[in-house]
Amino acid sequence: MQPSSLRNKRSTASAPAKVILFGEHAVVYNKLALVCAIDKRVYVTVEPLQNDTIEIFSDQYNALEKYSLKELDIFRKGDRYRYIRKAISLFFKDFDIKSGLRINIKSEIPPASGLGSSASVSVATILAMMDLFDIKIDYRKVAELAYKTELSVQGIASRTDTAIATYGGVLFINGDEFEMLTAEFPLIVAHTGKEKSTKLMVEKVRSLRERYPNIVDRIIDAIGEITKSARDKILLRDYNLGELMNINQSLLRALGVSNERIDEMIKIARKCSAEGAKITGAGGGGCIIAYTRKNIEEVYRGLSRVSNFVIRTNISNSGARIESGDE
Ligand code: PMV
Fold it and tell me: Is the pTM of this model over 0.85?
């Protein structure tokens, strides 16, 4: 496909951030997880360039990087924009496209915080390119390409983040399968101020499990049971989920992925009458979620005293979407 046919065209797509309500870490051992999209998004605008350059700018890094088409798959340590470059490369291969592109990313999602920013960027980029190149929008294809992007950048990935960034709402993850649930409740998300490494935390749990397999397997099984109970409650529209979150947090602590800072923030949330509070994602840093249907203001204010990034959010039923097309 030649970019000349796309002159004056530009497309913007967006995808939501996510939080894990229940089941992180256990999901690595084929247990269940419950995730939901929240109303923070990443916006990606793509426009064609009449040369072989891929220009990428993100407001979060405030940095413009340029790559030739040949460099799309060449990663060096500390390289920026790996997800977006891989997403473009896989998309071009799949649809037999070669074109220079200018990409502009606007993100409301802090990176490396357990909010799924890399999946959201990949999903929004792929969707925007589908629109730009007049390819029939196919969300299954978007989720598939975004998953392959994560897999090849990280070496290991579950479909959780890319599925929720594509479809939004609440997803009950069961291996490669997922079930869409509907639910409506507010959440408070607060950042510990420290970026986390999912890889490190997953390794930490793996190592604990190697040393104490019988104990750790029971913890993992129990987390799986919590997630199942939460799903059953949600299906019955019973949103008394706080207690289950607190049990889940205690088990995450037992797995060694909490720390003093996280414990302190969780204590504050509960002191401010949150029904439940827990890590969301890998732990060791990143974000916590606090669950309260009645004391939102109190919990928000309490956490704001100790964190620079606190948001009140609802579940976002809007998954990835096209924001605008031609200029
Ligand atoms: O912090 P995040 O959003 O990368 O979530 C990690 C969740 C884990 O269960 C710890 C790992 C995984 O791949 O599911």
Answer: yes
* Sequence-separated (6 or more) residues with CB below 8 Å from residue 10: 45, 46, 47, 132, 324, 325, 326, 327
CATH number of domain containing 242: 3.30.70.890
Atom of ligand 1 nearest to the CA of 158: 13
Rounded CA gap, 55 and 306, in Å?
A: 38
Tell me, in angstroms, the distance from the centre of ligand 1 to residue 70's CA.
31
List beta partners, residue 68. Answer: 53
Residue 106 within a domain: yes
Measured distance CA(87)–CA(36) in Å, rounded: 23
pLDDT digits (tens, 9 = 90+) for 149-198: 999 888 877 888 999 999 999 999 998 889 999 999 999 999 999 998 88
Q: Is the CB of 25 under 6 A from ligand 1?
A: yes
